[in-house]
Amino acid sequence: MTFPVARPRRLRASPTLREMVRETQLRPADFIYPLFIVHGRDVRDEIPSMPGVYHLSLDRLAAEVREVASLGIPGVLLFGLPAAKDPIGSENFAPDGIIQRAVATIKESQPDTIVMTDVCMCEYTDHGHCGIVRDGQIVNDETLEILQRVVLSHAAVGADFVAPSGMMDGMVGAIRQALDGAGHQGVGIMSYAVKYASSFYGPFREAAQSPPRFGDRHSYQMDPANAREALREVALDLEEGADMVMVKPALAYLDIVRRVRDACSVPVAAYNVSGEYSMVKAAAANDWIDERKVVLESLTGIKRAGADLIMTYHAKDAARWLCGGR
Questions:
Q1: Residue 212's pLDDT is what?
Q2: What is the model's pTM?
Q3: What pLDDT shows up at residue 325?
């Protein structure tokens, strides 16, 4: 009988040895935690399709962000639900809008937390699209003017990064021009450079109350079948001044995460989106899977594919598990 000379199992012999040679290390510092901020007082309402994720009012926000920071999670990504909606999403750029007040609240109570603000129009408009609508069409360049107003209002109250997510052509360049022209050169841009027209966004649209009232978003979000196009989008956004780029969703697009990581030198984020989160929660609630093991395996896979940062609703639980908690 011939015995093997190479025995890879030698490096798997014990937990200590496996950890010592582990190629991919998952840490709480890899996570960004998304938050949904609403008007009102003492609001902490669980989102039905996203167990463990809440609508939070401003008076509950500081405590939430302190908890996030205590778990070693370095930043949050803010989404706001306005008091009223209109065709151009006026509260999106109002000085006293929900996100403007949220950023100020966080920076006053937890100044070291990195605050990223989603920059889009769908939550704020009465039609639910990510841009200005003219004759049933989403018009690109008029939308850019609104996005410039939005980012200036976010920068004015202390946002560290703005994160344009509407997939409008030229959005990064327009935003960089507006920020620099107003003296906000230190505010970074994390672009949703590669955002697919995915079916995994359903629970988010409930949480953000942002489904389109007509049509769909396929004219501006990417075709899930395309990979080369993702690299073109990334290259354009980097030329226009993006400091980080994102791939969204994550788990169904790990090949894209890897291609983007190999193609550029800036930090790459991946968004572990609501549908991915809710499927795990539903399966765990039925005892079909071990939630802790599946979540940590999934997040490790996203990082192994090349993501430097992971936007995930699992962030708080994953951080506790990584630090030995239950």
A1: 80
A2: 0.94
A3: 67
Contact (Cβ atoms closer than 8 angstroms) between residue 125 and residue 211:
no
Give the residues across from 38 on adjacent strands. Answer: 57
Complete DSSP assignment for 197-246: --GGGHHHHHHTT---SSS-STTTSBPTT-SHHHHHHHHHHHHHT-SEEE
Active-site entry in 85, 107, 195, 293: 195
* CATH code of the domain made up of 24-322: 3.20.20.70
pLDDT in tens, 102-119: 999 999 999 999 999 999
**Tens-digit pLDDT profile for residues 232-253:** 999 999 999 999 999 999 999 9
* 248 catalytic per annotation: yes
Annotation marks residue 195 as catalytic: yes
CA 179, chain centre distance (Å): 21
By three-state DSSP, how is residue 132 classified? strand
Q: Kindly name the residue from 85, 248, 303, 316 that is annotated as catalytic.
A: 248
Residue 299 CB neighbours (<10 A): 25
pLDDT tens digits along 8-58: 999 999 999 999 999 999 999 999 999 999 999 999 999 999 999 999 999
Degrees, nearest 5: CA angle 151-153-157? 110
Domain-wise residue ranges, the chain: 24-322
Is residue 271 within 8 A of residue 200, CB to CB? The reply is: no
Cα torsion through 197, 75, 143, 177, rounded to 10? -130
Q: Region of 195 please: left (phi>0), alpha (psi -120 to 50) or beta.
A: beta
Who's near 265: CB < 8 A, 6+ residues apart? none
